[in-house]
Amino acid sequence: MLGVFLIWYSLSSATPSEREELWNNILVADLKWVMLSLFFGILAHMSRAYRWKFLLEPMGYQPKFANSFMAVMGGYLANLGVPRSGEVLRGATISTYEDIPFDKAFGTIVSERIADLIMLLLIVIAGLLIQTEGLLTYFETQNINPFISVGTIFVAILLGVIFLKLVKRSKHPFMVKIRNFARGLLEGMKSILKMERKKAFLFHTLFIWVMYLLMFYVIKFTIPETIPLSIAGIMAAFIVGSFAISTTNGGIGVYPLAMGAVLLLFGINQQAGEAFGWIVWGSQTILVIILGGFSLLFLPVFNQKK
């Protein structure tokens, strides 16, 4: 609902000429760059599905790539409705079709997210080194502290682990059930330490984020006003966009507004900046809706012989 309100507020607060300029920028977008961006996005999603097997292998599971990919895309689709619900759906999906215990599957997803948080933090640091003033100005005006946001997630994970350690000592039936679930969860999380192909996991982690950057970067060529945008501006906008997506249900309503605000600091007028945001967010969201919807429909068909 917040996202829908922000979309309404953004459009209603603009003047008729500003809305017309925003719409024209979207209409004249060069589609070949949008298609290239979608291609990079698909490669990132495929790499994420393939990377998952490196965490499941140490526990003796060999899921089919098709099931892993469709579980990933179904999870992304769920995240558009309820933030972070996709991780639960993804774990439940692979558990259903590959006979992998949910607790262990979900534990590997947590480990994945920790690796991705580290990558995002490294990108934030690189962005601050490249464009300190622009990023700090944006974060200050929006009352955002990226390090506190990332740190809060790490602290939450740490507290969760401590809670599970305390549960381990209880003999209450309900606590015993939690303890059994926690054991599987921790086993899944520890799989990142037991991997035989750590270099392959690292390669795919880097590849995923390079693809994310590329699918974002090429969109600058879709609108004449954003073509001169520097690497520093791209990095700053990418970081802001990553936080917009991670803190909402897929960035709906927030993402274009965030792009318009941050690109304004780099000499891009607000309508062009928001158009840039709409093209990035809209194209990738449509991709997720199509692939995610198809995945959820096709999963039972693909696995009907089981």
UniProtKB/TrEMBL annotation:
The keyword Transmembrane helix applies. It is found in: Cell membrane. It is a multi-pass membrane protein. Keywords: Cell membrane, Membrane, Transmembrane, Transmembrane helix. The chain crosses the membrane at residues 24-44, 114-132, 144-167, 200-220, 226-245, 252-272, 278-302. PANTHER family: UPF0104 MEMBRANE PROTEIN MJ1595. NCBIfam families: flippase-like domain. This is YbhN family protein.
